[in-house]
Design brief:
By secondary structure, the protein is an alpha+beta fold. It is 25% helix and 44% strand. The two termini are 26 Å apart.
Length: 135
């Protein structure tokens, strides 16, 4: 289970920092959606996010969504149970809907999550199982 997650920009590129508390053998899929050209104030971003949250709260397999807003555009970081769950959401209809809504084609990038280093608990996990961190 993800207990904390931060998103920031380092050298103008998105960087993700996550604190994970994983159940053994848990492998998650991380999807990052970027929509260039969206410029919203903090208030506009919060209004849009809270308005869409009920839809995302009902998606099968979506564990968590982080709404993104910044000078490079908007988007989200999605933590999915599996690739199949993510693919059920990110289909051709979704892409066309996002492009129509925001006037820009979204960029979708998938990442498998095999290894997690949690510096706050000094834990290293490989495929969800605790591993030797070393010195």
């Amino acid at each position: 289970m993800i207990t904390e997650f931060e998103f920031d920009f380092i050298f103008g590129r998105p960087a993700i920092f996550a604190k994970l508390q994983l159940v053994e053998e848990t492998i998650m899929l991380i999807a990052i959606v970027q929509i260039p050209g969206i410029e919203r104030s903090k208030e506009e971003a919060i209004t849009a996010a809270t308005g869409s949250a009920p839809t995302f709260s009902k998606l099968p397999g979506l564990l968590r969504k982080y709404y993104l807003n910044g000078e490079n555009g908007g988007g989200g970081v999605y933590i999915w149970e599996s690739r199949e769950a993510a693919d059920a959401w990110y289909n051709n209809e979704w892409s066309a809907k996002m492009e129509k809504r925001f006037g820009a084609k979204p960029r979708l990038t998938y990442y498998d999550n095999y290894v997690v280093l949690d510096n706050s608990s000094r834990e290293l996990r490989v495929d969800g199982a605790l591993a030797e961190l070393g010195s």
